[in-house]
Give the backbone structure.
Amino acid sequence: MMIDLTKLINNYEKEIDVNETITFDQEYLSTTDIRSIKPVAVTGTITKSDGEFFNLNLKIKGEMTLPCSITLADVILPFDINYESDITDENENLKIMGNNLDIIPIVWENIVTEIPIKVVAPNAKPIKKGEGWQILTEDDENKPLSELKDLLKEKEDE
């Protein structure tokens, strides 16, 4: 999503309002744990600072769907991000081409930083047993050792 900065550069306006909805395709999602993402609302302003700097002040709001860490079921996680930064042509993650600024990399970078390490669905119940495996408790873990103790006691009594 390109924003024309010409009016700011030539001092015709003091700020540019941003009020856009951005949709991310599967290509963006493939490198993350995000299963899907609803269209993201981006609002804010761009102002010119001293020299060649621009000040970008954005509010990024939306919902992403992530897998539950226990059941792998879908978990909808809302996000509401406030982003403020001075930007120049030298920023690596920005695409300033001529008088246009592409804010999609900024928005995407901020969404990715909101992904938690672990998400658990509110109704998730841990699975304790499956085919060929089970989760052991401390009592279960000590049973083989207690049987071994009994065998050693019998051996000592002989």
Q: What stands out?
A: Residues 138-157 form the longest helix (20 residues). The two ends are 84 Å apart (CA to CA). Helices lie at 6-9, 26-29, 104-113, 138-157.
